User: Fold this.
Amino acid sequence: MDIVCLDLEGVLVPEIWIAFAEASGIPELKKTTRDEPDYDKLMKYRLAILKEHGLGLKEIQDTIAKIDPMPGAKDFLNELRSLTQVIIISDTFTQFAKPLMKKLGWPTIFCNTLEVAESGEITGFKMRIENSKYTTVKALQSIGYETIASGDSYNDLGMIKASKAGFLFKSTDKIKADNPELPAYETYEELLTAIKANLN
Assistant:
């Protein structure tokens, strides 16, 4: 039994924090997991900037409402889901993901949760499990699935390398250079072909 595990941001939808950085005019918020491998450090950095500027969940959700999946993402996902089971494993948050899941046709997503005060201030975040992408892939393998994984960032490398087949997708030159053993693709057509070749 195969199951495909995909990252969300940078793979199926644009990076939420980059979109919000542009909408809010705060360039410091453009930093993502492509730049900072330590997710805990990255989120604390982001929350401190939001607090400094008096921005909360509503402002970010207003930006997310205007984000559309990448061109071809929904068709790619639909075709993939017709062939095998697919789970999106993301370090984003349920409060961010819902409108994007609607636009993608409600695929299954495993992600995290924000802690939000009544005022709308984001006060913290709760990770579903430590090292969630790698841990989730290993858990799926423990119940009889063979995993195929793809993502674009540092936090995807664990699940990609732990899977029977793993691919970088729309990644950075640095990540590709640091991981030359991983096939790297730029189009959904290429990624779909590679995944199909590894399905039992």
